[in-house]
Amino acid sequence: MKDRSNPSGRAASTQHPPGATAQATALTHYENFPVASLLCPARLRGPIAAIYAFARTADDIADEGDAPAAARLADLAAYHGDLQAIAQGRQPSSRWPEVFVPLQAVLRSQGLPVALLADLLSAFVQDVEKTRAAQGYADRAELLDYCRRSANPVGRLLLHLYGVTHASAMQESDAICTALQLINFWQDLSVDIPRGRYYLPRADCAAHGVCESELLALQGTRANARLIADCVLWARSTMQSGAPLVHRLPGRAGWELRLVVQGGLRVLDKVQALAGGSLHTRPRLHARDWCVMLGRALVM
């Protein structure tokens, strides 16, 4: 649900589907998928915008600017302290009032699970620590654990707002959010790898005979193309396993999610079409793609 990369990307021009509107400063970042759009019930746009503002601001602390890792980690610790403060009914610091004042109101009115917000912060901390150490992920299990904290909480928070509590819905939401996270990784290889972000699992690299130096040099080898193609299949099957959730959500929420699912699948189409070229080209959605997505959403 959140765009994990994009150093242009995270602070680039906003792209929304037709009729969508940005709801908070945090949403001026590039997003592939509709966020708090007009398809969302009006009563939930404020709470959803507050959640995204919280996540996006923390993400920026972890990624934006030139601050050293120690400073980023200190800021994330302070940010976590403000989260704990509002969760306990105390006043946060004066550093991020645009985030924690509205979020505190939403915690009170909606009873949001604070543990899910804390999971997001733990993932941002992990990003900083792994980047500092130039570390990647050993295997898919380790990467999925990161997705469990970096992406899945957003979907569960949204389900909470919609009053959806079925275990099967939670599992499908996790699948969609994990898929969106994986899609962002495979879409953003050309910008993540030069920045020291390595999300292609080492076990998968070994299985496809990938040469590490060639991958880090963003070379378009056959092994690298096979690796990316396999990762695309992984993300696609994960998304498809969660897609039935669109039929569980009421009214406009289900239609919103259809666009989210189809947006992710459309990005995968573009990554796949590049045949490994996403190592040097970042695929993006354009006006024609929104037409394709809307058409596919109608027949889900």
Note down, in words, how this protein is organized:
The protein has 300 residues and is an all-alpha fold. It has 13 helices and no strands. α6 (152-162) crosses α7 and α12 crosses α13 (287-298). The chain is globular. 43% of the residues are buried. Residues 1-36 have low confidence and may be disordered.
Oligomeric assembly: single chain
Uncertain segments are 1-36
**What's the helix count?**
13
Helix content: 55-70%
Large-scale geometry: globular
Radius of gyration: 19 Å
- Main beta sheet, described? none
CA(first)-CA(last) distance:
19 Å
Structural class: mainly alpha
Strand content: under 5%
DSSP summary, beta strand count: 0
Order of helix and strand elements from N to C terminus: HHHHHHHHHHHHH
Mean pLDDT: 87
Name some characteristics of this structure.
single chain; 300 residues; mainly alpha; globular
Short structural summary:
The chain has 300 residues and is mainly α.
Topology, please?
Elements: H1 42-63, H2 69-87, H3 97-110, H4 114-132, H5 140-150, H6 152-162, H7 167-187, H8 189-192, H9 202-207, H10 212-216, H11 222-242, H12 251-273, H13 287-298
Helix pairs in contact: 1-2, 1-3, 1-4, 1-6, 2-3, 2-4, 4-5, 4-6, 5-7, 6-7, 7-11, 7-12, 11-12, 12-13
